[in-house]
Amino acid sequence: MVRAQEDDLGRARFFDQQGVKAFAEGRIRDAMALFKQSYLAGGPPTELWNVARCQLKLEDTAGAAETLATYLGKKNLAEDDRREAARLLDDIEHRSSTFVVASSPSGGQVMVDGHIVGTTPLAATLAPGRHEVRVSRADAGSATRTVEAKYGHPVVLDLELEQGGPPGHKAPHKHAVRRLSIELVALGATTSMGNAALGLSPAGALSVGYAPFVFRNSLFGAALRFQVAGDAWTTSPGVSNATACGPLPNDYSAAELTLMPTVFGAFRLGRLTLGAHLGFGAAIYATSSNVGGDVFAPSCTFGGSAAPDVYASLDVSFRATQAIRVLFVPASFDLHGSYDGARTGGPDATSPWIRFGIGLGAALDL
C-alpha cells in the first residue's frame, strides 16, 4: 500500500517536472496537460494553480476562473496561496471587455443601458455584467441587443438597423420590415396610335403592392395597378365625322382605364430606392358616347372594347419618413393593340397604341 502511494507520488512529481519544463519552453498546452495529469496522479492542489496559469496564458479566462474556483474549494491551502488565488479570481471576474459595434448603415447612435457612448463604428470597453445595447439612426431605424461581458471576453455586434420602438424596447427581427406599399402617382404622357398622334395626356395611377421577398438592401413582390388617363385628339382636314346618327356629342376625347397585376423589384441606397415594375393586364376606353376624329371612325355606338396591355416603368423614391416616400417616375411605358372601331383611312390608327409617361407622386409603406 505504501509502495503504491510512493509510486503515485513519483509519477505526480515526474508529470510536474515535465510540466515545468514545457512551460519554460513556451509549450503552454503541453504544460497544462502535464499539470492536470500530475494532479490526477495525486499531486497537490497547487497543480490546479499551475493549470490556471496555463489557461491565462492561452487567454482562456473562463477556464481559469473555473479552475481557480475549484482550487479555492480545497482544504488546507496556505493562507498566502488562498489569498493570491482569490485576488486573481476577483481580477478575472472584474475584467472589462473590448466592445466593438458596427451597423448598417453606419453613423448610428450607440446607447448602453440608456447612456450614449458614441456612434458606429465604435470601439470601447464594457464593464462586466449584462447590458442592453441600442443602436439607432433617425433615418434608418434602430436595433437592440442584450449582451453579457464576462471574464474580459470581447463583445462584438454587427447590426442592421430596422424600424424600432423607444429606448428599452427590442427592435423587430430584420425580416419584420414594411412589406405593404401604396403608391399614388400623377403622370403626364404622350400617346400615339399609328399615325394618329395624341397630345399630352394627364393620368393618375394607384398601385397596391406586397413584397414577400425582403433582403438586406433589396425587395421583390407583386402589385395591382389601376390607371386613369384622359385622352383628347383632333380631326385632321379631310377626315369625315359624318354619321347616320347626326352630330357626335363627344367625338374627340375619352378616359382610358387600365387594370393589371405587376411584379416589381427595388434596391435601397440609404434613403434612396431604385425600382422597376413590369405588368400585363387590360385597357379600355370608358365612354358611352360616339367617338370619331383621327382615332376612331364615327359610328352610332362605341362599344369600348378591351385591349391587352403591357406596362413597364422605372422609379426613384426618397424616404421622407419611416412610412412615406416621395416618388419620381422618370419613364413609364404602355403598349396595347388598337381598339375596335379604330380608323383605317386617313390617319391610320390601327397600329399598336404606345404611351410614354413621366410622373411624380408619393408612397406609403406599411
CATH topology of the largest domain: Porin
Characterize the overall form: rod-shaped
- The fraction of residues assigned to DSSP E strands is over 45%
Number of separate structural domains: 3
The sequence of SSEs as H and E is HHHHHEEEEEEEEEEEEEEE
- Main CATH class of the largest domain: Mainly Beta
Strand order of the largest sheet: 8-9-10-11-12-13-14-15
* Ends apart, CA distance between termini: 81 Å
Biggest sheet features: 8 strands, antiparallel, barrel
State mean pLDDT (0 to 100 scale). Answer: 83
Please identify, by name, the CATH architecture of the largest domain.
Answer: Beta Barrel
Determine the structural class based on helices, strands and strand pairing. alpha+beta
The residue fraction in helices comes out at 10-25%
